[in-house]
Predict the 3D structure of the following.
Amino acid sequence: MLEKNSLPPSFSKWLHINKILNLKEKFLFYFLWFILISSTISCAVLFYYTKTKAIPAYGGEYIEGIIGQPAHINPLLSSSNETDADMTSLIYSGLFKYDSRGKISPDLAESYDLSDDKTTYTVHLRTDVTWHDGESFDASDVLFTINLLSDPSFKSPLRNNWQGIQTSVLDNRTLQFKIDTPYAGFLSNLVFGILPKHLWNSIAPNNFSLNPMNLKPVGTGPYKYESAQKDSNGNVVSYKLVSNPNYFDGKPYISKMTFNFYTDEDSILSALNRKEIMGIGGLSSEKLNGLKVQKSTTIYKLDLPRYFAVFFNQTKSIPVATDEVREALSLATNRQEIIDKVLDGNGHSVYSPFLPGMIGFSDEIAQAEFNVNKANQLLDENGWTKNTNGVREKNGTALEINLVTTDWGELTQTADILQSQWEKIGVKVNIEPFSISDVQENYIRPREYEALLFGQVVGADPDPYSFWHSSEKKDPGLNLSLFGDDTSDKLITDGRMQFDNEKRTQDYIDLQKIIAKEIPAIFLYSPSYIYPVSKSVQGINLENLISPAGRFNDASHWYIKTKRVRK
């Protein structure tokens, strides 16, 4: 102990503290020093974090796994291949795009004007856009792209959307589109990537889909092509994009976007569990339980404007052409059982071609009674009696339905459940699963089916013309139930021309009432789009998707790296 008024130990004595203190005193001494140093550091760290905030920083690499192969990373060809569409959405920009809520917003367009008669759109382009190769973008690129997709020799799936539309260039930054009749959903026609005229101008139609630029594209989007790796069989196994420093909406934060391609869900899920990839471009519900890295993964469950239904072809079957049979089948359909067993609860019931959030959706119409007893009673009252095998008959016609669907797991499971549900009311169901190409070529195109379990993608605008107008009953139309007459057709055409949302909604509600009464199809469910992504990827702000590729609509704002700045 120091005497009163004595000086503290000199520095040299502190160096020999171990020789002065006993074991107990040493423990207490070093413990107090530890507390002092820890407290000092903690206070410093706390001060630093209270006075600063984390913001996105440039850098990092995001690696996503996708099932499939890229073939045509070209906005005029990519709509028929989800893998192509994913890459295209990052590399190309359109006049307009869908935001994270699924609403249309300007992209290459800066603004637009609409004429009083609603038939002329004048689009004004941004002035700060360049192609990935440094060339300037202007209105001639847009006109060139539209001329290509309108030309049948280039075989673009988008061509049908551009029949009867006149496009003209007013100046380098202004285009005009004229349509024959008002169409409330016209802006959705302008959501497609624009090609660079200076690179594609000399490509002949017969070489369009074969050109190397389909895998080495040049666009104006947030990311640009860097490299691709192929295996010994020529399959693309990895595709690398890098951020575009000259992107007109600001340089993307994540430096590299890499995509690895897999043949099936088991392979891609294994890769995520091994942390070889950081996300999966769409995972089925049945595989979700196999995700072993859930603590480090954010699982986005998003709505898409799509639904699955059983479409009836009343020209091919006496039973399904009978009103009481279709009504009984609807009453016997337990949608929730299908959602629970097939989707593990990841989806919602659908009762019409209009989904929640769409113009025309109505809670009053969005319901259908599930009542097996009532279904049996209805068939009994209309003379459909059960034979010794438990199958109903009427006037020598058995209540037997051939149900065609694809051999995709979720749909075959759905078909099995429907078979079980409908057998409870005396209906014999023969399930006929085929490959998707077989179903499209041999059943959908010639309309050779009695009942078809299939899906439809509605799109951003709820315009039901392609799926429900009577003019679309034959191929290449998509009216799978061969539904429609003058009354329903008028509601559809009036609705698509109506810019007053209240009046348009009423037209579509009236249409749904007709569909609910006639039951040309039994609407089943809309599955969630499941998108697992590592929690290290931040800034993802997704609410509603128009298509799976829409998950990248805001990718330029995603980030992995952060830095702290003064508040």
Remarks:
- The radius of gyration is 31 Å.
- The domain at 306-527 is CATH 3.10.105.10 (Dipeptide-binding Protein; domain 3).
- The first helix runs from residue 11 to 15.
